[in-house]
Design a protein that fits this description.
The protein has about 70 residues and is mostly helical. It has helices at about 15-25, 30-50.
């Protein structure tokens, strides 16, 4: 299976500093990308709960894995 290309994300220096602080705490993810992933996933779950967007069935997506993910370090 081909690996998805990385998407560059431009963040302000203060946001990067906040992400680094949260990564140091460790409860929100490992590295900046892990913290961002956690906040994105939580935001999507909240939007589904508030019925802003409709839930989707993960089995409809090839290779969808909810468990056993590795956290990127960056």
């Amino acid at each position: 299976m081909a690996e998805a290309p990385k998407t560059p994300v431009r963040l302000s220096p203060i946001i990067r500093a906040y992400l680094d602080d949260l990564a140091k705490i460790g409860a929100y993810g490992k590295g900046r990308s892990g913290v961002m992933r956690r906040f994105i996933e939580n935001g999507i779950k909240e939007a589904i709960e508030k019925k802003v967007i409709a839930p989707r069935d993960a089995s409809a997506f090839d290779g969808e894995v909810d468990e056993d993910r590795t956290e990127d370090e960056s």
